[in-house]
């Protein structure tokens, strides 16, 4: 059974006129002959709404008793038994009285839709479940009755009933919404201008989101290539800290303000390991950004600001969102920070947003800068302490006599500090320099590099040994920390890669782009060859730079078997990165195999479709082609017979039958040959620029003269088509429309512009086609409904769509307002020079905006 259609009138607040608009639509449908009933509408004592109920059939309600009170609810069973074409159900978010068939009214509506009944309903924006917290923060009232957003989003049509806050308050003051005794309280509380303005904005933004979805679907369906507005691509820089969730939500709100905005969250891990990132927090943030429709990326890079900017430019981002630094004030001595560096080096094409959060200036520990295992900054500080520390200490000790033992302990403390900061080499330098100073200034004989007392030799040797031991321990710990952190980073990348393998979500090109991003390379390519003597070929590529012809030309190559290699250009990778690169290479080979298996499956489906076509072709030959041949043969045999003396009228009728049979046979054979050309891929259109009004009239030769009305303006831009294929497509569409149009109703053939396309519309007033059958009528050998066998083999529309797509156009079926079917043939318009005077005429002829109805009601 065909599912019914749901139409919803959405309002920003009570009293904007949703129920009135719904009842007005019901009256319009009843006047057109539609079986429409009122399943449940509450007028709340509003006289104008109550008047609109007159003349409409109202279904009896079900009476329920609850807590010693009588309540009336919609009788779902009665509506199902009545089975109208359209049912009006007010207040979609209403909670039914206990004991009802369903807990919520939207569940009642779902039953009606499942039974094939179209439903028109109403709902306010504050009743959407996802907006409950927002509405409560605005109005101070928690909505108890809500409806899931998905129920409203699934509606076939959403109409916004809008009214300014001032007009709504005037309506309230006049007593058109609530009873007079409630007006003052309502105006002072819920219906304050600020509340109404905020609720109105919520409704407009929610509907705008739906408009974007419809627009994107339309652009994709009609292959519109011209940009209709700016597309924001926002990169969110994550550190793995708790502020990441705030940044992601902020970026999502920024993306919602632009048409088709996209959020890309990126976490950059240094090659010397992760610093303080929590894997659990990163997993939560990845889930959050994916739930908000964005994507998560994991990139390895030593220079975090440079890696972030390279990533943003690589994905053509327009904005970068970063959090305010968590470092304390004194920690800025190590550098300006990632945010300041990114903002300074972003250039004029990238906007950088620094977002405040609760973790600002709460500290994040000493930064681990890029460089060696300990980081460049720590090594520099280690050398500074190791060389300058003993000299400063010597100057201070020359003014104070603490004794040799205390002097050695102080020098040892400086050496240990150098070891903790810079590792082995700064500690050795500090120990050597400190021992020289101890010997020269504090070991008898003074101011000479000799030692008189052997005990002092032992003390200095112990001093050097302790310094070297501490430095060795620090260096070993740094090496182990580096290895552990790097393995953790690798495990996260490999875990993400394994998840994609299991889900089969990543194509070869996407995987290569992931490799390029992860290792900060210019390009990544998968090369293969059939044998050792065959040349290398590129199976897939991502990035920019020179194309690779063999693995030896790349900066990095990773073999995958004997005849396949993953090649990267940009820089030379360290050996420790090749383990992760090998995993990526193996996955690239799997992705290539998966793509080829998919291609083989597609070819198998094509062969199966070809077999089905051949089988149907034999069936057509066995009946549809033999029928006109039998008629022609019978007429010819009758004319050649000497047993009957045919009159001139009879001879003319037999000759007319022969001519009609031959024409029908010619048409059928032509469609069969065209379908065969399309199936074998031998249709090669000769594209050239031509006016639509030159081709369309030529396609009307095969239909009666008075059956078609032509409306093709001469001011239309030229189109890039094959004139012969276009003529054949339009001819098949017109012939099909005339065939199903009622007697006395003409078919309208019109043309207009739509952005960079020209649309040819063939409009009939026939029985129409249900939505679920609109795509099926374009399949070969399909005749809709109870079309007689003599109506053709069902190839006309299939050939028309095939020719349209061969010319780079589209062909789709739409409902004709008032009944019937409209075929929309969309074609590429030829480029118009900017100075051409026709450019302005095309804009004037464009139908965009013609469907705008009342100023305060917008239909999706």
TrEMBL record:
Q: Name one GO cellular component term.
A: cytoplasm
Give TM segment ranges: 380-397, 409-437, 457-478
Localization of this protein: Cell membrane; Membrane
Which enzyme class?
Answer: transferase
Write out the GO MF terms.
Answer: ATP binding; phosphorelay sensor kinase activity
Stretches assigned to the Histidine kinase domain: 620-831
Concerning SUPFAM superfamilies, the annotation shows: Adenine nucleotide alpha hydrolases-like, ATPase domain of HSP90 chaperone/DNA topoisomerase II/histidine kinase, Homodimeric domain of signal transducing histidine kinase
Topological category with respect to the lipid bilayer: Multi-pass membrane protein
**The protein's Enzyme Commission number:** 2.7.13.3
* Organism the protein comes from: Streptomyces yokosukanensis
Task: Give the start-end ranges of region Disordered.
Answer: 832-860
Q: Which InterPro entries match?
A: HATPase_C_sf, HATPase_dom, His_kinase_dom, HisK_dim/P_dom, HisK_dim/P_sf, Histidine_kinase_KdpD, KdpD_sf, KdpD_TM
**Catalytic activity from the UniProt record:** ATP + protein L-histidine = ADP + protein N-phospho-L-histidine
**Record keywords:** ATP-binding, Kinase, Membrane, Nucleotide-binding, Phosphoprotein, Transferase, Transmembrane, Transmembrane helix, Two-component regulatory system
Name this protein carries in UniProt: histidine kinase
Q: Which Pfam families match?
A: DUF4118, HATPase_c, HisKA, KdpD, Usp
